[in-house]
Write a structure and sequence with these properties.
This protein folds into two domains: about 110 residues, NAD(P)-binding Rossmann-like Domain (Rossmann fold); about 180 residues, 3-Layer(aba) Sandwich (Rossmann fold). Strands 8-7-6-9-10-11-12 form a seven-stranded parallel β-sheet, with helices on both faces. Helix 1 crosses helix 9 and helix 3 packs across helix 5. Helices cover about 30% and strands about 20% of the residues. It is elongated. It starts with a strand and ends in a 14-residue tail after the last helix. By secondary structure, the protein is an alpha/beta fold. Bound molecules: NADPH dihydro-nicotinamide-adenine-dinucleotide phosphate (NDP). The site of NADPH dihydro-nicotinamide-adenine-dinucleotide phosphate has 30 residues, from helix 5 and strand 7. NADPH dihydro-nicotinamide-adenine-dinucleotide phosphate binds next to helix 5 and strand 7.
């Protein structure tokens, strides 16, 4: 009996993922769309993005769940997850895409682009003297696979770059702060705050009214992780009052962002529809195949997710 890998994703096309994976798994695994699986008992691997309720119960012999993305909040919060290892994607192209978006957003605020965008429709030559990068302090909250790469890129541009995580780490050009006690001081020092925290029970609404009040007046806020890490009404109030000068937001408490959200029209706010980074089949395929083969041959898994930590 050939092992089956069952694929499920709403947004990601099956054919493209099958074609990217096939060269790495030929002769070892059959790749099938979950709805069309021929023998559910032969399914040992599930490659999934937000599968429907009851999905896992169909496959009694699952040995590995591979999250088709970096954020695992929706997966680990499920009640029906089988007791098998979970891995996530951590592919270099995905990291590069995220670092590119974050760098763009940091430069947008550091170079006063919202100011020029507001002036242009009024035909105003609104000169604003630029600052040296080293005079701008950027705080990156979350230094994981994606966060660490983004922080390093920001530091490479010469910004005074700080990061926040639970555990210490060594990143070139980045001053790392750890633990809850370090957060208020970091928020108070930053001109630009970038949220790259995973959504877990410990980070839900972690950026609340108190956190926004702790930020420097005139600071800019960037969120590329999950909307639920932020108390959205508190963020809106901080933008409305002018305490925050602007924001670049890719993720929201409710997605798509409702048409009546005040965020659409607040000055200095740029909205993008949750696309800072996406899973890329060609560059992700080797690590997915490596984990499938590790299960088949008794090797070590990479990019595993801790259920206890929730990321
Ligand atoms: P990881 O899971 O690799 O790392 C999470 C980081 O957050 C770690 O540095 C961790 O600290 C830190 N952290 C977690 N909890 C806390 C806490 N309570 N206090 C302080 N620090 C904490 O995340 P990634 O960098 O890979 O990705 C970040 C998020 O980006 C994903 O979870 C996902 O939600 C989002 N994402 C968004 C996309 C988009 O298109 N907008 C695309 C892909 C991902 P430590 O290192 O000490 O463990």
């Amino acid at each position: 009996m050939t092992d089956i890998l069952a694929f499920y994703s709403g947004p990601d096309p099956f054919d493209v993922w099958r074609d990217a994976l096939a060269p790495h798994l030929a002769g070892h695994v059959e790749i099938q769309e979950a709805d069309k699986v021929t023998d559910p008992a032969a399914v040992r691997f599930a490659l999934v993005w937000m599968p429907p309720e009851g999905f896992f119960a169909r496959f009694p012999n699952l040995e590995l769940v591979i999250n088709l993305g970096a954020g695992v909040d929706r997966l680990v919060a499920r009640g029906d997850l089988p007791d098998v290892p979970i891995t996530r994607l951590s592919d270099p192209e995905m990291g590069r895409m995220m670092a590119g978006y974050v760098l763009f957003a940091v430069l947008r605020h550091a170079r006063d682009i919202p100011h020029f965008e507001a002036a242009q429709p009024k035909r105003e030559w609104a000169y604003k003297h630029p600052h040296a990068a080293s005079d701008t302090t950027v705080a990156v909250l979350g230094l994981g696979e994606l966060g660490a790469l983004a922080a390093t890129e920001i530091a490479r541009q010469g910004y005074d770059t700080h990061g926040w995580a639970t555990r210490p780490k060594d990143l070139p050009g980045v001053t790392v702060h750890c633990g809850d006690d370090a957060l208020p001081g970091l928020l108070a020092a930053a001109d630009i705050v970038v949220c790259m925290l995973p959504l877990t029970p410990g980070t839900a609404k972690r950026l609340d009214a108190g956190a926004f009040a702790a930020m420097k007046k005139g600071a800019a806020f960037i969120n590329v992780s999950r909307g639920a890490v932020v108390d959205e009404p508190a963020m809106i109030e901080a933008l409305r009052s002018g305490h925050l000068s602007g924001a670049t937001l890719d993720v929201f408490a409710t997605e798509p962002l409702p048409a009546d959200s005040p965020l659409w029209t607040l000055p200095g706010v740029l909205i993008t529809p949750h696309l800072a980074s996406v899973a890329l089949p060609k560059s992700a395929a080797p690590q997915i195949a490596a984990n499938v083969r590790a299960i088949q041959t008794g090797g070590a898994l990479i990019n595993t997710v801790s259920r206890e930590r929730g990321y």
